[in-house]
């Protein structure tokens, strides 16, 4: 059995085509689905909408926060780098201003200045004094660069041509064959010529400045020039002097933050700022998913809680809907069964009225035929010439017999349709059954039929219409006698049902009732014994009598194994009690066919 | 004994009367309540066999009227309908001896008549 089969509500399997099933006035499955759908929409809908709204708002806030944080970071680092460069530029400008050319051309003096600069401002590797021709006159530092000619170097040309007094270079290899930056300051001499003080910026200092930023493991920060050439080493975007693979931001006086997708498909948050009075652009890069990691974690927790909540709500909704629909279904079934019974009773009443009308109309002419035929018989009996004619008397007897048979039928019809007021009296069940069997014990003896009576002593005397009860018992017992073979068995049982009803069942081990006939067995005129003269009114009369007594009659049978008729009657009838009725009244009983 | 049969079906009541006469019972018949009352003005009867349903005067109404002039009479009722109203009406009144369903067996009717009249004698 599948899981669905286990949890499936029973009413979904309900079919109106079963033996005892009734057709419900609505589509149970449709109502069930509609109820679940509607309750789900009104309960889960707002929850999901709220979650989506919260997700959107939180996402926007997080992105704004990321941007603000990146802007703040870039602003801070750009300021630091700019300050670092400005400071070196100012120191060098002051040096050329405060020292004469001769002093600077003194190696020892120049070394003292370098030492002073390294100890104070720091970030300078060497110093070189270059004349107006581009020749390095003096040099202090770790390399052997004294006497080098820089006149054809781009930075030197630009400084000599006077485009800029203070010059900050891109990264380049130079004579030392190692990537480095320089700051050069041009200073005029009284004779109209000039000299240049060149300092190499400590690349490590740049690294320190950039590494001081509070960026995560996946982040990166570096400098590029306006052509996209890396000016400092990077963690993930190439080495110094490589061309960067990201797009080069357009020149702007303010810092910017944007999103880009890297070659691996990851989203990157890129912050950049042009460093004023320098050829550098500061770039700070972080993977977006790293920045929103906290938010992502929170999002998954909220999504989990939401999913669990929806699951629990759906579970509860389905179960509550199933429970309620099940109750509605059961109550509707009961209602429909009652309605069916009412319909059946109404049908029986209509047929009864029709039968009564027919019986009454037929009875009078039938009585005339009967009396006229009787008169003819009398006349033939008293006249000598006819009294010895057996054929004539046989014909008259045949007419009288047929009329009596017709009268029997009309009496049954009237009995079926009559609606006598209930005459309530106290009845002892054991005595009632014994009275009934009094009519039949001869037949039982003759056919060796064993009749078992099982009426416990706790069955109280109860109030009902004795005559009708006896009629029911006589007819049912007669039917049982007709159903069993010789030496058959008939069980008559009585049981209390709760404290309100008494059940009397008459079981035989006779031929039973075919399933196709069970549903119609109480219908008027339904008979399987039409050949032997059955009218099909017997059980319908019993059915009507049981209803009149405030009870009901049910039948269970297996073909070939016998049948059980169970009559349930209320212990208290609640009508006006009256003494036993005159035995002379209504003696219409005939064997039920 | 003298019996009066009253039924609007004169074919029925005439045949019944004739059959009773053949059995030595002095039976007369009329086919309406009005004729029955007229007949009773001049003649005394021991028992009346009345049909319950008759036009103008029903069997029960007729009995009430007869009781006013012949309080000692006994009654047997016949009906082709057998409704609960008929049944209750007969048994709620005094002097209601019997109630028979049509068609009536002549021997049963005579037996009931005899029973009814015997009871009268015992009472007397």
Give a structural overview:
The complex is a heterodimer of chains A (593) and B (124). By secondary structure, chain A is α+β, with helices and mostly antiparallel strands. Chain A has helices at residues 3-7, 28-98, 101-104, 107-119, 154-160, 203-211, 288-291, 293-382, 384-387, 390-417, 429-447, 466-483, 515-518, 538-548, and strands at residues 124-131, 136-140, 166-168, 181-188, 194-201, 220-225, 256-261, 267-274, 280-287, 425-427, 450-454, 462-464, 489-497, 501-508, 552-558, 562-570. In chain A, strands 2-1-5-4-3 form a five-stranded antiparallel beta sheet, sandwiched between helices. Chain A has a five-stranded mixed beta sheet with strand order 11-13-14-16-15, covered by helices on one side. With 124 residues, chain B is of the alpha/beta class. Chain B contains five helices and five strands; from the N terminus they run βαβαβαβαβα. Chain B starts with a strand and ends with a helix. Classes of the chains: A alpha+beta (593), B alpha/beta (124).
Order of helices and strands of chain A: HHHHEEHEEEHEEEEHHHHEHEEHEEHHEE
Count of DSSP H/I helices of chain B: 5
- Cα distance spanning the termini of chain A: 49 Å
Q: Judging from the principal axes of the Cα atoms, what is the shape of chain A?
A: rod-shaped
Structural class from helices and strands of chain B?
alpha/beta
CATH homologous superfamily of the largest domain in chain A, by name?
Answer: Histidine kinase-like ATPase, C-terminal domain
How would you write the strand order of the largest sheet of chain A? Answer: 2-1-5-4-3
Largest sheet of chain A: 5 strands, antiparallel
CATH topology term of the largest domain in chain A? Heat Shock Protein 90
Rg of chain B: 13 Å
Helicity of chain A, as a percent range: 40-55%
Just name the CATH architecture of chain B.
3-Layer(aba) Sandwich
| End-to-end CA span of chain B | 15 Å
Count all strands of chain B and give the number.
Answer: 5
In the CATH scheme, the class of chain B would be Alpha Beta
**Average pLDDT of chain B:** 82
Judging by the overall fold, what is the CATH architecture of the largest domain in chain A?
Answer: 2-Layer Sandwich
- How many alpha or pi helices of chain A? 14
């Amino acid at each position: 059995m599948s899981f669905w089969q286990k949890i499936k509500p029973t009413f979904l399997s309900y079919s109106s085509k079963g033996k005892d099933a009734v057709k419900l006035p609505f589509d149970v499955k449709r109502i069930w689905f509609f109820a679940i759908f509607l309750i789900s929409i009104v309960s889960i809908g707002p929850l999901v909408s709220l979650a989506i709204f919260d997700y959107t708002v939180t996402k926007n806030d997080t992105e704004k926060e990321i941007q603000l944080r990146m802007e703040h970071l870039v602003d801070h680092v750009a300021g630091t780098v700019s300050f670092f460069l400005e400071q070196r530029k100012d120191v060098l400008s002051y040096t050329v201003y405060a020292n004469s050319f001769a002093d600077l051309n003194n190696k020892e003096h120049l070394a003292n200045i370098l030492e002073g600069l390294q100890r104070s401002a720091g970030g300078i590797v060497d110093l070189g004094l270059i004349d107006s021709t581009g020749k390095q006159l003096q040099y202090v530092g770790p390399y052997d660069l004294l006497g080098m000619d820089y006149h054809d170097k781009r930075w030197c040309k630009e400084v000599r041509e006077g485009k800029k007094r203070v010059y900050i270079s891109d990264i380049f290899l130079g004579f030392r064959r190692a990537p480095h930056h320089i700051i050069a300051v041009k200073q005029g001499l009284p004779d109209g010529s000039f000299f240049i003080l060149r300092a190499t910026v400590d690349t490590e200092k740049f690294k320190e400045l950039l590494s001081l930023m509070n960026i995560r493991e996946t982040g990166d920060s570096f400098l590029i020039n306006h052509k996209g050439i890396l000016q400092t080493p990077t963690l993930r975007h190439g080495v110094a002097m490589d061309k960067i693979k990201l797009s080069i931001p357009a020149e702007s006086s303010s810092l910017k933050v944007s999103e880009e997708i890297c070659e691996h498909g990851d989203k990157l948050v890129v912050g950049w700022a042009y460093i004023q009075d320098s050829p550098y652009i500061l770039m700070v890069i972080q993977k977006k998913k790293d920045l929103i990691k906290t938010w992502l974690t929170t999002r998954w927790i909220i999504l989990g809680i939401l999913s669990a909540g929806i699951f629990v709500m759906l579970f509860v909704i389905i179960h509550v809907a199933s429970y309620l629909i099940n109750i509605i279904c059961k109550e509707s079934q009961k209602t429909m069964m009652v309605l069916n019974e009412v319909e059946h009773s109404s049908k029986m009443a209509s047929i009864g009225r029709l039968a009564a009308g027919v019986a009454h109309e037929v009875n009078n002419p039938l009585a005339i035929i009967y009396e006229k035929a009787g008169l003819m018989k009398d006349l033939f009996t008293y006249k000598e010439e006819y009294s010895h004619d057996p054929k004539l008397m046989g014909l008259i007897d045949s007419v009288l017999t047929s009329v009596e048979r017709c009268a029997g039928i009309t009496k049954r019809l009237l009995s079926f349709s009559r609606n006598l007021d209930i005459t309530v009296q106290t009845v002892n069940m054991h005595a009632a059954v014994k009275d009934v069997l009094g009519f039949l014990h001869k037949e039982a003896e003759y056919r060796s039929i064993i009749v078992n009576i099982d009426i416990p002593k706790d069955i109280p005397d109860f109030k009902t219409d004795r005559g009708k009860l006896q009629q029911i018992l006589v007819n049912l017992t007669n039917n049982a006698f007709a159903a069993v073979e010789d030496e058959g068995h008939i069980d008559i049982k009585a049981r209390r049902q709760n404290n309100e009803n008494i059940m009397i069942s008459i079981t035989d081990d006779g031929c039973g009732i075919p399933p196709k006939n069970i549903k119609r067995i109480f219908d008027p005129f339904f008979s399987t014994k039409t050949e032997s003269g059955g009218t099909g009114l017997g059980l319908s009369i019993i059915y009507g009598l049981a209803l009149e007594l405030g009870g009901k009659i049910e039948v269970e049978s297996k073909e070939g194994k016998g049948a059980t008729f169970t009559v349930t009657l209320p212990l208290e009838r609640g009508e006006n009690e009256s003494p036993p009725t005159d035995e002379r009244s209504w003696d219409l009983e005939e064997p039920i066919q | 004994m003298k019996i009066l049969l009253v039924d609007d079906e004169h074919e029925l009541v005439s045949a019944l009367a004739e059959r009773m006469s053949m059995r030595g019972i002095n039976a007369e018949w009329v086919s309406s309540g009005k004729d029955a009352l007229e007949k009773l003005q001049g003649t005394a009867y021991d028992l009346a066999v009345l049909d319950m349903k008759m036009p103008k005067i029903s069997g029960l109404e007729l009995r009430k009227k007869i009781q006013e002039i012949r309080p000692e009479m006994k009654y047997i009722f016949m009906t082709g309908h057998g409704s609960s109203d008929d049944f209750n009406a007969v048994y709620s009144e005094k002097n209601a001896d019997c109630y028979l369903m049509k068609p009536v067996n002549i021997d049963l009717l005579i037996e009931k008549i005899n029973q009814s009249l015997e009871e009268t004698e015992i009472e007397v």
